[in-house]
Amino acid sequence: MTDSSATRTCAISGKTVPASDCIPCASLRPSLLAFIRKKHPHLGMGECIARDILPELKAAFVEEALSEEIGEITDLERNVIDSLREHEIISERPDDAEELEKRTFGDVLADRIASFGGSWKFIIIFGTFIFGWILLNVAIMIAKPPDPYPFILLNLLLSCLAAFQAPVIMMSQNRGEARDRRRAEQDYQINLKAELEIRHLHEKLDHLLHHHGERLLEIQNIQTELLRQLLERGGNPPSSS
Q1: Spatial separation of the C-alpha atoms in residues 185 and 86, rounded to whole Å
Q2: Nearest C-alpha neighbor of 187 from the set 88, 92, 85
Q3: What is the pLDDT of residues 110-140, one digit of tens each?
């Protein structure tokens, strides 16, 4: 049973901390231990590191690994590293209601025009208007129609409508693209953090399995040596009564 009052000295900070708040160097994955030993060459396998300084070391290790793999670290990758250091959650719940409240009058107008201009309602209404205009100027016999064939005034109205409608719709689309870009950046950060955590778990499992195999092999060698000594002495293993 472990004594709850036992203390250990951190090999890096030199502080005395409870044994439960220390991580033995032998239990660290080899890649992380090799990185720490670059900065602290005196670190031995029998020493330990305090839990409160280990996240900072892991974050520095991840930053160096990312720099070697992808080159220059951007703000996105740095946010992921900071979240690993602080044990924070990157993912955010999408709040469309809050985003809608932040829209200006021009944003609301652009969204409504884009929504109406891209609907069947607009197509039907505008198609009816064009058909009525042509019917008024051609089918109905008027001495002086307001816009005789080839409907120059109608072409002018259509050109003006397209000239004003296109920029308004583009404003709405640009806002949608900016929102999608923010979500794509968030997805990238989440995927990067998940990949780093999964890689850490794989290395940790491989490290534990390797040490477990070495320990089993050591126990098996001890048992074999004991059996060999018993056979050499010509004795039998003690039987339990």
Answers
A1: 20
A2: 92
A3: 888 888 888 899 999 999 999 988 888 887 6
CB-based burial label for 36 (10 Å; 0-12, 13-18, 19+): buried
Cis-peptide into 238, omega within 30 deg: no
SS3 of residue 230 by DSSP: helix
Domain ranges of the chain: 96-188
**Per the structure block, which two tokens stand in for 22?**
């220390």
Asked if residue 5 has pLDDT above 90, the reply is no
> Angle at CA 174, nearest 5°, toward 163 and 78?
160
Does residue 169 contact residue 110 with C-beta atoms inside 8 Å? yes
Helix (H, G, I), strand (E, B) or coil at 43: coil
Identity at 16, one-letter amino acid code = T
Amino acid at 80: V
Would you call 52 helix, strand, or coil by DSSP? coil
Taken in order 196, 86, 25, 20, the sign of the CA dihedral is negative
